Structures are given as structure tokens and as C-alpha cells.
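DATA CLASS: polypeptide
GOAL: derive C-alpha cells

***
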Amino acid sequence: GYTSNGMEWTTAGGGKILKVEQTVKTDTFSQEVTDTSVFHSTGLQVSITPTKASSKILLMYSVYIGSNTNNRVHLQIQRSINSGSYAAIGIGNTISNRFRATTTSMLVHAGDQRVHSTHYLDSPSYSVGNAIIYRLYGNVHQTEYFYINRSHNNNDDDSHATPISTITAIEVGA
């Protein structure tokens, strides 16, 4: 251990960043939603294969979302371990008919883009060597399109921009 002013502590063992994986989306994406009862692909996912047992995964995303006027867009984190089925994680509680989402926003105008972002510390059960895939799925409350990195009207003028969206997985040692 170490001593400072009569206090003693031991060498820290956990909380170290062991691995970082990131997906950066620089192009645009559109998804038509004809079934508003299920979540649909956003085209954004990241894969990480932890290097140590019992690590946690800090998942972060920042996604620019567009849709039509007065539409709500919901995103949900889904996880697969070792090519298994996907399960939603980091979502809100079940309340009546509401969607269980990680993030949500309301788009007031067809020219709007909203940033969805979160930090979620996952404690997955895996074996060393298992790939863990995190993907983002989205939904809207009206039969409509939602977009990544663009607005609904997608005007080509100096008041609009094409941003980037990211999803990052960080292995944090136990």
C-alpha cells in the first residue's frame, strides 16, 4: 500500500479502461416505419470482445435523429452476446402502453434534428473471447420515416448540416 499523512491505501485494481471500440456514421440513413409497435434498425452498432472476465462495458452514443413534423422518435439499446439473440437493455420501466426506450425526443418541425445521447454502464454475463454487439433500434409513434444525420425535409441550404453519429463501447476493468 501507499501512505500519505498517516493514511494508508492499496493500489487500485478496478476501473481501468481496457479496450475501446467505436463506430462513426458520417453518411445519412432513412428507415420507413410501417409497424409502430416494434423497433427498427438505425444502422448503428458496435462490437467489443472483452479482454478480461467480469469487466463492465460503458456504452455511449450520440445520434442525430430526424423525422416528420410533430413526431416522437425513440431509441433503444439492444445487446447480443456470442451471437445470441438480442435483448433490450438500459430501457425505462413498463408503464401502460408506453414504449420502453433508452432515449426519446419530439421533432416539432420537418427541418429539425435532435441529438439522442446517453451513457449506460452494462454488466453483461459473458466468457472471455465472446463478442458483445450493441445496436441501436428506433421507432416513431406515427407511420413515417425516421432519419439518422439528416432532417425530414433535408434542405440543401446553409441552414442545414450533415452531422456525425457515434456509438462507443469501453471495457472497464472490474
